[in-house]
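Exam review. A common question shows you a sequence with its structure tokens and asks you to describe the fold in words. Practice with the pair below. Do the first one on your own.
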Amino acid sequence: MAGDIVPIELGLTEGNLVTLWAPRWREGDDEWEGFLGLEDDLYAFESVSALAAFVRTDDDNDLVDHPQWETLQQVSITELIPDDKHSYDLIGVPELAAEDPRPEVVAELEDALEIVRILGEVCELPATTKFFTANPITGAVTVGTDNFRGRDGIDLWVRIGRLIAKHWDDVIDELDGVVSVPDVDAKALEIAEDELEAAASAEDEDEPDFDPIDPLDDDSEAGESDEDDDQDADDEDDDEDEGFWAEVGIDPIRIYTDEGEFLSLRCYLGDEPVFLGKDGVIYGFSSERGLTRYLANSNDHALAHVSTYDEVQAMANGGELVYDVLPENVYALSGIDEDMLEGPRRVDGKQLDLAVELLTDAADFADLGTVSEALGTTTPLGWFVDYAINPDPNRLAPSGPFDNEAESWRALVHDFEERLVRRG
């Protein structure tokens, strides 16, 4: 998510190198974006171990003032391994652009061009920046395959491929020229290598070994029966844990905002959402104990009118409530607006879908039409959100910049946070 520091892998002339990218973050009224490096040098490493050793021991680079730098220095080495989404084969871009414009090809090309464009801007690389400013048609890849249909679309794809074939060597040469491999502390490197090896071994051990079972082997049959009994017992325990809330028709929910974590309750009466709260205000709690204490002693809220609330209050008075929040009832609002600035492909569709559900329910609870109006399919934000949640390379994608969409979303979240009150 935006605001974090992300490990990335760059396929360059010297091979696959790992470094760090800090997507746009805000400090006061200023907005920044950066990569691991110092002044004119972009630091990159041949291994994750070397990257980890450097991060843990260095305090003289362009990212040390990032709000997440100290946190990053404490993470496990596995969190510094770039995922597939952040691995860019920059050397292979010309070959990629020479393929047919299939959805996966266009998406991969878009990601590669976007990270190079950002590198050009942040590292002030004139040839790289000129490649994009002088060839705006490369931006056609940001809207999926829709631009590359029919004779004119294929011609556009071919033109982009030719531009890349002609100028990409200059871009790669400039990137190669700015990359620097700094020295790392030998002891820290040794520790990081051991940690990475231990993590790999632990992952191997976690993978189950499936031995063929002889159906005529009595011991195998007995073992299988025991495993089934254990599984049935686990299933019964799960049913008991979730059974009470399912029985009363009320769900514990957990909400994450920039103000922290909130635990609350919600149910539906017909299609109408009802939260633990009153007059459109939702009550959130920092701890399970605080929520239980409130439920035991208060009836001054909307859920008190639900027919099953007496059962909840009785359990609260007995200290028997357990709040096992299901994944579909966990809502994380932080950072979505900043991700939106990067376009719909950069947004976590599942996270956004859940956030839309929460904001919509909360607005309905307060008898407000602001969310449904803002997310209507005819609005820029509604179009953006619908595409991010239901990506389809055959649809016309929203085109940037996305400042207005991010600002509109930010306003919806701010309005929700104004009606989310911490009670304990």
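Now try the second one, then compare your answer with the model answer below.
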Amino acid sequence: MIVSSEDARRIAVRAQLLDGSATNVLDTVRKLGFLQIDPISTVAPPQHLVLWSRLGPFDVAELDRLLWNERTLLEWNAFIWPAEDLPLLLARMRRRRTGATASERMSNEILREHASLKRYVLRELERDGPLPSRVLREHSAAKRDEKHPWWGARNVSLMLQILNTRGVVAVVGRTGGSRLWDLAERWYPEVEKVSLRDAERAFAAKRFRALGVRLTREGWEAHPEIGADAVPDRVTFLSPFDRLIHDRNRAEALFDFHYRLEMYVPKAKREYGYYVLPILAGDRIVGRIEPRFDRATGALEVLGAWGDTSRADEGLAGLRAWLGPNARQ
């Protein structure tokens, strides 16, 4: 069904649970499809900030419990996924081993060149896992003197990443922010085998449902399960990794809002700031703000604000209320 731009905007916000309808962490991740993980946390890690934008104040320990205790969520390839998607993810993991793309062929080359390192890593994990990568780095067998121009001297970390994307090792916990690694066969349960074709079809359907609308030659095509009712008038801030704005061209077409993350732009060339968050009010992106949270003092300061910021204090109040109790988690 083709809908107007106004309805498309409402549907997109509703599909992403930014209308206040989110109820808990697990259901939110299931409906969004995944959470992206990134180490940059000027305000909060993006996987936490995305949840806060939808749930408001929530206990970040709940996410860890779902990942490492209940195992209803899983971490793979720098994303958090619903555990029921494991059969689909395993199809992607198997594909990574075929060398179908340039990056996969590069990974095959690395595995061939460092076959002894691969054996060493798997042997150590089998014997002593789960282990953080820094423990593996302490062994002389994993060290090399030369520095490769593509991956530098990060051999163990790169090896673990490659083996993770191929479903050989898994992230089975975190300690102090560091990942704990173990053999995937000891962490992933037995599940049905799904073909890559069927897996990609399933992911495409999930993606359409999570985004709500997609732009076609005819206009905005809406997912039939999402209504275009008016969005409640709530104010929140969006992570730069939020799926509502992750596709910058789509976000500009939907909201008439041009956005880019200027973290990697030289300071003198930035139009706004280092880590600027869009301000969502109802179904419109009305401005942008650059908050920074000091975990040592618990202070949330605003480095800059642009556009319509008349209601930014509403978002800041909620952010402060949430960040305080979670400052050191």
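Model answer, second protein: The two ends are 44 Å apart (CA to CA). Residues 196-211 form the longest helix (16 residues). Full marks require stating both points clearly.
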